[in-house]
Amino acid sequence: MSENNHDSGFSFYIPMALIAAFLTGCLAISLMDVRENAYSISANGTVSGSELIKYESIVRKSPVYDSDGLRYRMVSSSDLGLGSKSVSQPESVPEKKESSSVEEENNGGELKLPMEHYINFVPHKKDCVAYLTFDDGPSENTDAILDILDYYNVKATFFVIYHKDMEDKYKAIVNAGHTIALHSYSHEYSSVYAGEASFFDEMNRISDYIYEQTGVRTKLMRFPGGSSNTISRKYSRGLMKKLKKSVTERGYVYQDWNVDSRDAAKAKTPPEKLLSNVRNSIGDKKTVVVLMHDSGNKTATTVQALPEIIELFYEKGYSMEKMDINTEQIHHNW
Ligand code: ZN
Q: 76 and which of 85, 216, 225, 226 could share a cystine (Cβ 3.0–4.6 Å)?
């Protein structure tokens, strides 16, 4: 369900010496990407490559999608002689050709992440936070999105609507530790924005549905189309102004976004374009809220672009966190 109206811990250990540096200010982000048991280091700022080697690598599992379904391989720093964590490599997992980037294969367009992908991180820049948000789900893409987030150990926020036969996906989002939030029940603008009563009926219905499926009761929300949408005028002029006031009075917290991947703007947008859309609008924002979609639209390329979007934020020194009711609110003012 695209929205044309959208205008837009890793389990790693930080040496004690670095904790002090981190607490005192901005420590430049470094990202060390190690592949094929040989490493190369690209580090900016104060941390040299030789110091980086002392860090423990992150143990992660790499989801791989292929015709046989999902497979994992556990890798760890001990592969590299950098640490002492044990390695678990299921015997059933065949060796795969290493790949340095996500590929979309021709045989069915399945996503493949690298089998082995080692990334080391030093602490992120002070106060630089990116919130990855996914609207309109859950969908057939939810599992892939969750696996990618898990692969990078990133938590995100899902603004969901009602979808038939997707019961397990709501629970999967919550079980994976992400934030689930309200985005209306139907996402049909003619219903959502028919009037104030209709709007709150939509919100109550999705709230109850999320609660039934997950046990989570939330008042975190995103307006379909965002708080600055103009489509609602078609159904009820002046409604958005009223709604912004009344949702707040009723205890809801709404979030817009300030970086748009434009993943729902056009079919089959190349993943590189989504990446550059994000990269070009980060600017000097310390708090970034990225709009993406978990729409299940087969022509969407969100899943293909997501790994590189996540790596972009790591490279830029942002931590990636999930929202909660107390997260700084990013609101549109246009
Ligand atoms: Zn939406």
A: 85
The two tokens of residue 327 are: 């997260």
CA of 3 to the centre of ligand 1 (A): 6
Whole-number Å distance, alpha carbon 137 to ligand 1 midpoint, is 9
Express each pLDDT in 189-248 by its tens digit.
Answer: 999 999 999 999 999 999 999 999 999 999 999 999 999 999 999 999 999 999 999 999
Cα 22 to Cα 28, 48, 49, 290: the distances in Å are 9, 15, 17, 25
| pLDDT higher than 90, residue 261 | yes
Separation of alpha carbons 330 and 133, rounded Å = 12
74 close to 59: Cβ distance less than 8 angstroms: yes
What is the distance in A from the centroid of ligand 1 to the CA of 70?
28
Tell me if 58 sits within 8 A of 151, measured CB to CB: no
Determine the distance separating the centroid of ligand 1 and the alpha carbon of 289, expressed in angstroms: 15
Decide if 134 contacts 112 (C-beta within 8 A): no
Domain boundaries, the chain: 49-120, 127-320
In one-letter notation, the amino acid at residue 274 is L
| Least-confidence region, from 115-129, 139-153, 154-168, 287-301 | 115-129
* pTM more than 0.85: no
What value, to the nearest 5°, has the Cα angle with vertex 272 and ends 266 and 274?
Answer: 45
Better pLDDT: 6 or 296: 296
Distance 75 CA to ligand 1 centre (A): 37
107 DSSP 8-state letter: T
Q: How far is the CA of 16 from the centre of ligand 1 (A)?
A: 44
The rounded Å distance from CA 286 to ligand 1 centre is 24
Q: Please tell me the distance between residue 214's alpha carbon and the centre of ligand 1 in angstroms.
A: 21
* CATH number, domain 127-320: 3.20.20.370
